[in-house]
Amino acid sequence: MSGVTDRVWGALTSMIKLEDKVSRQAEALKTQQSKIEDLTARVIRLEAQLELLTSAAAITRLKGD
After folding, report:
1. Could you tell me the sign of the dihedral formed by the alpha carbons of 61, 48, 42, 37, in that order?
2. DSSP H or E run through 36
């Protein structure tokens, strides 16, 4: 009887540890997703600035000719 109890207890302990690992991974994934979204927003802003600067340079070249 003790062997069965030990195995059940071991299985429950393993399940609790696994659940904890899954929870930590989910939290890490949320953090990474947030970082990715922040970087995406930064890239969009940089692209917009680059387009504005490129357009301004083209206009300056046209006025200079």
Report:
1. negative
2. helix 2-64
